Amino acid sequence: MTEDSNEAALRQLIIRRRPALNSQQVDVSAGENPESAGNDPIMWVDFSRDLRWGRISLWRGGEVELELADLETGEIKPLHFTLVNPDRIIPIIDRLTAWVGAR
What we know:
Layout lengths: L2 H21 L3 E6 L10 E7 L2 E7 L4 E8 L4 E8 L6 H12 L3
Antiparallel strand pairs: 1-2, 2-3, 3-4, 4-5
């Protein structure tokens, strides 16, 4: 597994799911920092709807952080994973989109 395969899997998943998420009024935005020295993610994707927000961040070496925030209550849930298989990104995205209210 390479970090490129994780990045490619995340990119492809977002490309495939963005139309459905947008139709459910979930805003999706992404950013990349391929030159990251390790203190910053090399890629991140934000999902938001109403007062819920989520971010998936990918670091070199396959580390993934999922942040879920309820802007009304101030509740924040940070979750950390090591992604050893790019296919494991799918349940992470499913969890994130469920949090922000996608159905």
